[in-house]
Design goal:
Length: about 400
């Protein structure tokens, strides 16, 4: 068995890369450890940059997104009991689209089936061979039998815990990491959003985020302890805690209801350099993690696979290695800017255990500066809507 590009991981990075390569006439096979339903049950990101929407349009999967996605022109920052709107469209001329990662994934999966492209779900013990030099191969177990596929390139799109980055010799990697001393407890409910735009709340009890998936479905997050567990958070307790962290107007408008999903995610900044090792490329969470504040994780996965697909097209169509040689540098340049932004948003909005009054005053000064200065608003906005690529 043979393909041009073997893609490890069928999350958003792998699926979008598969469709981009297909558009360029490059054959690819996805190897995914889990099954389709498992992947679609994961509730994750919700905000798409215009660039991500553009890529989904490019591969012809934006119909449902344009029908159901919510276009947002601004966000609200809440602190000291009051809310302040940042008009991102006024600052940048751009918008973001609220459309869940689950739906993006579903649309990409459906397009892949329609295009007749191969995805091996439930692929066990995936291992990567001979990518440093020579002809790469991917080995995997399916239904108890070991198979092997030869390829020109391997794209490691298998997330933070995947096998691709772990297949690289440790001394070839430089790792950068910051683990934050808190997590996010997320709750999804079939209730109308508290406000038409997202509210990022800085509060002395901890950060809170009011987000949404549609006009009838809300997504809320609470900063929680790192070792906390969802079982400690019955719905009533979640709603009570959320109300304590919101401004009065939001409390008055909040509609509560039973949760559909609740989960806790740790917060981490992480970058692995470089993103290319011979004929293996890393993309998305396999190469880097951002804390979710600012909604950059999924969008970075999209810009990575854009760079990679263009580089591979150049390799096959123009017989030039220039693109693949430059992939890691190009991708990392954008990755680090998003790392900075996500770290900054996280630092400005969360309560850090053990910090003093000085730190809280600095946070409030930073927030006040943001709402008073056009230059600061512009800086926040251009990062939030997504830096160009
Ligand atoms: P993933 O989505 O992780 O996909 C990787 C795929 O590879 C998975 O399907 C996995 O099953 C598969 N895989 C793993 N190992 C193997 C293997 N050995 N062999 C084969 N397949 C394998 N971002 C935001 O912007 N906002 C959020 O609110 C937000 N919330 C998040 C909550 C959680 C719990 C997590 C983990 C992430 C969250 N993110 C969020 C980040 C965002 O979801 C990710 O950045 C995005 O999913 C990255 O896509 P990816 O395809 O690179 O990786
Ligand atoms: C969502 C998640 C984020 O991290 C964010 O900054 C905004 C929205 C969400 O899941 O809706």
């Amino acid at each position: 068995m043979r393909t041009q590009v073997a893609i490890i991981g069928g999350g958003p990075a792998g699926l979008l890369l598969g469709q981009l390569l297909h558009r360029y006439g490059i054959d690819n096979v996805i190897f995914e450890r889990k099954d389709r339903d498992y992947i679609l049950a994961r509730i994750r990101a919700g905000v798409l940059e215009q660039g991500t929407v553009g890529l989904l349009e490019q591969v012809g999967v934006a119909e449902r997104l344009h029908h159901d996605g919510l276009i947002h022109h601004g966000i609200e920052l809440a602190f000291n009991g009051a809310r302040h709107r940042i008009d991102m469209t006024q600052a940048t001329g751009k918008t973001v689209t609220v459309y869940g990662q689950t739906e993006v994934t579903r649309d990409l999966m459906d397009a892949r089936i329609k295009a007749g492209l191969t995805t091996v779900y439930d692929a066990g013990d995936v291992s990567l061979h001979d990518f440093a030099s020579g002809q790469p191969r991917v080995r995997y177990v399916k239904d108890g039998t070991t198979h092997e596929m030869a390829c020109d390139f391997i794209a490691g799109c298998d997330g933070f815990h995947g096998v691709s980055r772990q297949s690289v010799k440790p001394d070839a990697l430089k790792l950068f990491e910051r683990v934050y001393p808190f997590g996010w407890l997320g709750l999804l409910s079939e209730t109308p959003p508290v406000s038409p735009e997202l509210i990022y709340n800085n509060h002395e009890r901890g950060f809170a985020l009011c987000s949404m998936r549609s006009a009838h479905r809300s997504r809320y997050y609470l900063q929680c302890k790192l070792d906390d567990h969802v079982d400690n958070w019955p719905d009533d307790k979640f709603w009570e805690e959320l109300k304590r962290r919101l401004d009065q107007e939001a409390v008055d408008h909040l509609v509560t209801g039973p949760s559909i999903e609740k989960s806790i995610a740790p917060l981490r900044s992480f970058v692995a350099e470089p993103m290319r090792f011979g004929r293996l490329f890393l993309a998305g969470d396999a190469a880097h993690i951002v804390p979710p504040t600012g909604a950059k994780g999924l969008n970075l996965a999209a810009s990575d696979v854009h760079y990679l697909s263009v580089a591979l097209r150049e390799f096959y169509a123009d017989k030039s290695s220039a693109g693949i040689d430059d992939y890691s540098r190009r991708a990392l340049s954008r990755v680090w800017k998003a790392e900075r932004f996500s770290w900054w948003m996280t630092s400005m909005l969360h309560r850090f255990p053990g910090t003093d009054e000085f730190s809280s005053r600095i946070q409030i000064a930073e927030l006040n500066y943001l709402i008073e200065s056009d230059a600061a608003k512009m800086s926040l906005s251009e990062n939030y809507v997504g830096l160009p690529y």
